Amino acid sequence: MIRQIPVMRICVSCRKTYDRKNLIKITKDHKQGIMFQNGMGRSAYICKSKKCYSDSKIKKKLQKALKTTLDPEFIDIFKKEITSYNDYPNKGI
Ligand SMILES: [Zn+2]
Known about the structure:
single chain, alpha+beta, three-stranded antiparallel sheet, two-stranded antiparallel sheet, 29% helix, binds zinc ion
């Protein structure tokens, strides 16, 4: 019997470890720039708790984790993305 071992990742905000399925992945894709849940390149993870995604320092934390400078619009897109995932917790990402 093969046991499924969950892939654990750390939230960039609260630094807690979660199952990969419960985190939003933000990737700095080599070609397409910042992507959510997809893309190839350096990635950062954030949990779906409001405390984390509405953290005033989240942009700074993500910039550090992704080693990039994020556009001023990023945070709006990011919040829209993350709230849409919260609306559909069983979206099966
Ligand atoms: Zn968190």
